[in-house]
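For reproducibility, we list the full input for the FE2/S2 (inorganic) cluster complex.
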Amino acid sequence: MAQLPISYSASITLNVNGTDHQIEVDHRWTLLRVLRDVLGLTGAKRGCDRGECGACTVLVDGDPVCSCSMLALQVGGRQVRTVEGLGDANSLNVLQEAFLAEDGGQCGFCTPGFIMSATALLESNTDPTEDEIKAALVGNICRCNAYGRIIESVKAAAKSEAS
Ligand code: FES
Ligand code: FES
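The corresponding predicted structure, in tokenized form, follows.
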């Protein structure tokens, strides 16, 4: 019987936050692994590593995805956005500002994932109802149970963008 190769690799172009990266990836590597361990973008967190907690949420072509459950190979040639692409410590974007002002995080582990899901929401709906906010964040889990303040943060960001 023919022996299977131990690993395969391929070269892909990964566009992350507007910058192209030419990367050699093992076929089995997830997008989360490449973001964190190859590109050093540690905003997306590894929580459950099985598509259940949303801590690893990033946007691919504008849609929130669990980067732990998507192979890097699937993302070649597509647009990836991570929390690092929204703003930085010196220049927070409106959602980051709102989470800070409304105390929308406790330990903060889930926060990047919530912010990326909320980013996708506010880019498609600038004036969401509370039910729409809850529906948009349904794939994100907060172990600190800060849900009330997280929802208030998204409301505040929408209000701030409208003014
Ligand atoms: S780490 Fe990806 S969903 Fe939990
Ligand atoms: S703030 Fe700790 S998990 Fe959400």
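The chain is about 35% helix and 15% strand. The mean pLDDT is 95. Both points were considered when choosing residues for closer inspection.
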